[in-house]
Amino acid sequence: MANEKLEVMSLERAIFAGGCFWCMVQPFDELPGIHSVLSGYTGGHVPNPTYEQVCSKTTGHTEAVEIIYDPALITFADLVEIYWQQTDPTDAFGQFEDRGDNYRPVIFYFNEEQKQIAEESKQRLANSGRFDQPIVTKIEPAQEFYVAELYHQEYYKKNPANFARNHARRAAFLKEHWNEQN
């Protein structure tokens, strides 16, 4: 073999909660630099929760996605901008059809740089005038992420008709508020 140079990738993590995790996977899933997007639970006090436990609203967890990405191809700032365009950042009590604390919108950060990027982005969105209500999405330190059950993974691919029904109200909202960028 000739001298081959093996590059070692340095991957990073991002965790976003924006309502039903089924709707949060697809916007990130096929972007350059994304290595995986997993549905799961985070932010609560029950270890290894099940979907039924999280839905009971007694675990403190919220549905979220964990994104493993290559920062040389896509940055955390890029991911945050995509995140805003998937949620209603003025609704702290869930997202669209999904109501309750387990659907609250949160940007979780792993370090001070991610925290600063998220806070600055949130402030820019608040100052933009795009929304006439306050931006209430939380920015919190990342906690343990528990991968959801297998049937929740890549739900939009496995169940396109049901995904489309669940995604309809979100899609209409996004079109109304972000259409000029789509």
TrEMBL record:
NCBIfam families: msrA. Residues 14-163 form the Peptide methionine sulphoxide reductase MsrA domain. Gene3D superfamilies: Peptide methionine sulphoxide reductase MsrA (3.30.1060.10). Its EC number is 1.8.4.11. The gene is msrA. This is Peptide methionine sulfoxide reductase MsrA. Pfam families: PMSR (PF01625). InterPro entries: Met_Sox_Rdtase_MsrA_dom, Met_Sox_Rdtase_MsrA_sf. Belongs to the MsrA Met sulfoxide reductase family. Keywords: Oxidoreductase. The active site is at residue 20. Has an important function as a repair enzyme for proteins that have been inactivated by oxidation. Catalyzes the reversible oxidation-reduction of methionine sulfoxide in proteins to methionine. GO terms for molecular function: L-methionine:thioredoxin-disulfide S-oxidoreductase activity; peptide-methionine (S)-S-oxide reductase activity. It comes from the Bacteria. It catalyses: [thioredoxin]-disulfide + L-methionine + H2O = L-methionine (S)-S-oxide + [thioredoxin]-dithiol; L-methionyl-[protein] + [thioredoxin]-disulfide + H2O = L-methionyl-(S)-S-oxide-[protein] + [thioredoxin]-dithiol. It is an enzyme of class 1 (oxidoreductase).
